[in-house]
Design brief:
about 500 residues; mainly beta; 14-stranded antiparallel β-barrel; two-stranded antiparallel sheet; 20 strands
């Protein structure tokens, strides 16, 4: 009966682990052309920009000429833990975030009916995961060995001794590692009797831990879009989007105790996959000073392959042949460090809805407001609010400014490992919210496009070394310089 309860819990916990993975992969960033970034992405009702079309394909109908664009970005991340504000981790990334080819087929002189049919081939980076940061606590209350003991509850000691236990679907690999490293002991002395388990590392001491995360990867989107212009009043569009996903996390986690006992847990997890979705959009231009737009993107059906492995080392007292306890160091890889690889063909990224309005401020520029909604099963809904302003200096020069607030897919509790999972990455992380402040400039001649922008992202997130750990409260400040170069026909 107890084992049946564990099986039910394992199903629930396994779902949570999938949610944790997809919560990370579902996060997007304010990436795109410099004009789009300079307006904080508030362009759903405006169009006429490759990255605006990413949010609302109806914006493709605004074009009246061929265009080619390429966007480059230099990013500097500064990450620190609130409790350790003087320890700052810096990360630099240079990358191409956008490229697009736009083909416009317009009937000259036509003012009603189908005025233009336009097509676009584009690449966009939706998320860049490159980041390294460190955190730690000197007085946490629980050890990772406590988690291992909890996951081993109900097993007799003899169940953890045969070599084939690694392939037993009733036994988690964290339990196997912790037992082989002498980190946990059964409370029941009879090795054939199911037992509670306890850690061997400490009795009443607090834990000094440290955590180092190396994260890399990207979510890239490749799109084929179509948009049309109807009487210069209505714009309709659709796009087929293919996503390429790669995400890698390497973590070094350490626990130390006053009696020289220690625990080291190194893990590696990567996700790679492809997915596809469809997006449709509409923009209305009923008045000279007003535009309104809305778009819908289906959930992204994807094939996701996960690879994981790791090792654990315990430094604990172990009795020798004479019964004298001495500290010994034991290194235990997960099943001889052979990577676990499995593929999920039923994963889904969130569906997304975007709505916005834009106001023409006579000849001085425009003001744009936008709301984005994303929904993912088993996670909180995500809400983004954007405001963008564009001021016209001359016929060829303009300035941009914007602000965006993005809520999180975060749930209220840390993720729990299933008792029988082969994964030993016990950590989880949640982004609480993000703020963006942006500014930019632009130059457009009869053929040349040069746009530049600056983006500041302020982000709060929590990292749990394991499900019983006190969270590390992290803050990231990301500074980015964005440059878009382009060419268009007359």
């Amino acid at each position: 009966m107890k084992r049946l309860i564990y099986i039910v819990l394992a199903v629930v916990c396994a779902g949570n682990i999938v949610a944790q993975d997809l919560q990370i992969l579902s996060q997007t960033e304010l990436l795109g052309t410099a004009r789009y970034v300079g307006m904080a992405g508030a362009m759903t009702a405006i169009g006429g920009d490759p990255s605006a079309i990413k949010d609302n394909p109806a914006g493709l109908g605004v074009y009246r000429r061929m265009e080619v664009t390429l966007t480059l970005e230099e990013k500097l991340d500064r990450v620190h833990q609130h409790e350790l504000p003087d320890v700052i981790d810096k990360n630099n990334t240079f990358m191409a975030t956008q490229a697009a080819f736009i083909f416009s087929f317009t009937e000259p002189g036509k003012v009603s009916g189908m005025i233009a049919n336009n097509f676009m081939l584009s690449y966009h980076c939706l998320a860049n995961f490159n980041r390294t940061y460190a955190a730690g606590y000197v007085d946490d209350l629980y050890s990772l060995s406590d988690v291992a003991a909890l996951k081993t509850e109900g097993l007799p000691e003899n169940a953890l001794q045969p070599a084939e236990r690694w392939s037993d679907s009733e036994i988690g690999w964290l339990s196997c590692q912790a037992y082989d490293a002498y980190l946990i002991d059964p409370v029941e002395k009879d090795p054939d009797v199911p037992s509670l388990w306890k850690t061997k590392l400490y009795q009443s001491d607090v834990v000094k831990n440290s955590f180092v995360m190396h994260e890399s990867g990207r979510v890239n989107q490749y799109a084929l879009g179509w948009g049309c212009n109807i009487s210069n009043r209505y714009f309709v569009g659709a796009a087929l989007n293919v996503l390429s996903i790669y995400h890698n996390q390497e973590v070094q986690y350490t626990e130390q105790f006053h009696d020289s006992c220690a625990l080291y847990n190194d893990t590696y997890v990567s996700h790679s996959g492809v997915g596809a979705n469809l997006s449709v959009g509409f923009i209305a231009h009923p008045l000279q000073w007003l535009r309104a737009g809305v778009s819908f993107t289906t959930p992204t059906a994807m094939t996701l392959t996960t690879t994981s492995y790791g090792n654990m080392t315990g430094i604990v007292p172990v009795a020798d042949s004479l019964g004298v306890e001495r500290l010994t160091e034991t290194f235990v890889p997960t099943n001889n460090n052979v990577p676990n690889r499995y593929t999920d063909r039923t994963s889904y990224m969130p569906l997304r809805v975007s709505a916005g309005v834009a106001f023409q401020l006579k000849n001085y520029g425009l003001l744009s407001l936008q709301y984005d909604y994303a929904h993912r099963k088993h996670l909180n809904d995500n809400h983004t609010f954007r405001v963008g302003l564009e001021g016209v200096i001359t016929n060829h020069f303009f300035l941009n400014a914007g602000y965006a607030f993005e809520s999180s897919f975060k749930k209220s509790t840390p993720e729990e490992l299933a008792y029988n999972t082969v994964r030993t990455d016990a950590y989880s992380q949640f982004v609480n919210h993000s703020h963006y402040v942006t500014a930019g400039f632009g130059f457009r001649s009869s053929h040349v496009i040069v746009h530049g922008a600056y983006r500041l992202r302020m982000q709060q997130f929590e990292t749990y070394a394991h499900e019983l750990a006190t969270p590390y409260n992290m803050r990231a400040m990301t500074h980015s310089i964005v440059l878009t170069l382009g060419f268009h026909t007359k």
